[in-house]
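Form 7-S
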Amino acid sequence: MPRDLFSTAPKEETLVASPESTTPKPELSDGTEGTVAAGQDGQNDFTIYRDETEPANAHPLHHGRAKETEEDNLHPYVQTLSISNLEDCVALEKAVFPENERCSREKFIYRLTVCPELCLGLFSTVSSPPTANAIPTYESARPPDSAKPNLKSVLIAMIVATKVGSHAVTDESMDIPRNWQELQGSAGSNTDTRGHQEHGRTIALHSLGVLPAYRGRGLAKTIMKSYQQRMETSGIADRIALLAHEHLVKMYKDMGFEDRGKSEAKFGGGGWIDLIYEFAEHGPGS
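Output:
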């Protein structure tokens, strides 16, 4: 993980998740009923609920945000990421994480190529950003409809992950095989224990990030809960593991993760906490 962990903003409950590191009711915030949003392939349907208890802009993270625009009337939808989203992911990562904790472009290329099915994006359609730098993923975004080129499907939050053989995120799992391109499509066995392990039963979450302009809306919880549900029902793993700094542990515990204590990972300077979300079938007492 560690590389894509959250930023250092304490108590920011809609921040990012693990560094290189569902669905109870998600939280959004314009006070309207939940709506069902579908991905471009029409198969990734999730219900997005809007917070009915907190008035718009009441959250402290709303302070200082640009005046209300279309981003205050979100109609987000989740969709599996692919290598075509590379520039979006790089831009979002840069906007969210400190330099020493960012995922490199090389690692994004690897993960979006080798295991894109483990990577999920939260998108919203916008016509233009409120300011030049408000939505750094806008420039690389693509129109969702060729008949309306003024609209763009913008990545506003993401989860990027791999599978590993251990029960926690390690420095080795955050690395990538040096010759992974040569191994692509090879029938031979790969003995390199770095990076994605196809037969591993733990999903190592390396990046969970929400664009700063969209924080304070519960989007981190929204995408995480959708991700938990999708991965659990797929049957491809037994748990999700991530690394977090101490001030974000409570947020993850509220999402169902268990605090497993100090991590041995040294990525980004260390100081991480191991957090594990066991799928129901494999949880304590099962």
